[in-house]
Amino acid sequence: MSKQLIVNADDFGLSPGVNRGIIEAAENGILTSASLMVRQPAAAAAAAYARNHPELSVGLHLDLGEWVCVRQEWVPLYSVVDTEDSVAVADEVRRQISEFQRLLDRPPTHLDSHQHVHRKEPVRSIVASLAERLGVPLRERTPGIVYCGDFYGQTDEGETWSEVLSVNGLRKILCSIADGVTELGCHPGYDDGLSTSYRVERALEVQVLCSAEIRQAVADLNIRLRSFRDATRLSESFRTSLE
């Protein structure tokens, strides 16, 4: 068995600064995949880059809203649809997948969602059905692909947790990766007036993902960098090896 790592950036298309950070981490770091937010203002620019750089695996980052923690209570920063309304969710999912295919002229290599809204019903079943129809992985739902969200610089209450976003912090995460296929989630970028609460941490992620020390750690730990373009074949072969 071997360790196969997909390093996937969420929020591609959120802003020019986020695009710039993701592209930098892909070209100069260990990033291999990204998830596109088709509703956001820099989506067209992100898609244009992806069309010209097919080596970057690009999936759909389903965007149904965003929530922030205010006085220990999660409140909506914005809402696209009521996530408990199955009809509205299904319509919006169809709209976003259609927009993705229009922008990139190809289907997504994987599916996930902003702030993991697909963990709960009815979004979970709707997006799982789409993933099955497309034949692509869905975060935390595809057997043989383990999701790791540990490389994130805030606590559950929205407080900055900068020690995670360091070379030592990421090295510890890499050391914990087991044999098989792992997706490491990340959010590299640059703050260019973002309204989201996750702003200053993004540049730290770019710095760490592009560091020579992390590239060396990947080599020393015998981790093979992969993308979601490889994911289906890799997860199937890993499941077969366990039988």
Write the layout of secondary structure elements.
Blueprint: E1 3-12, H1 16-28, E2 33-36, H2 43-52, E3 57-62, E4 65-70, E5 73-79, H3 86-104, E6 111-113, H4 123-134, E7 145-148, H5 167-176, E8 180-186, H6 200-209, H7 212-220, E9 223-226, H8 228-242
Parallel strand pairs: 1-2, 1-8, 1-9, 2-3, 3-6, 7-8
Antiparallel strand pairs: 4-5
Explain the overall architecture.
By secondary structure, the chain is of the alpha/beta class. The chain has a single domain, classed as Glycoside hydrolase/deacetylase (TIM Barrel), CATH 3.20.20.370. Helix content is 40%, strand content 21%. The protein contains eight helices and nine strands. The strands form two sheets. Strands 1, 2, 3, 6, 7, 8 and 9 form a seven-stranded parallel sheet that branches. The protein has a two-stranded antiparallel sheet with strand order 4-5. Helix 1 runs parallel beside helix 6 and helix 5 packs parallel to helix 7. It is globular. It starts with a strand and ends with a helix. The C terminus is likely disordered.
Q: Which key terms come to mind for this protein?
A:
243 residues, TIM Barrel, seven-stranded parallel beta sheet, two-stranded antiparallel ribbon, 40% helix, 21% strand
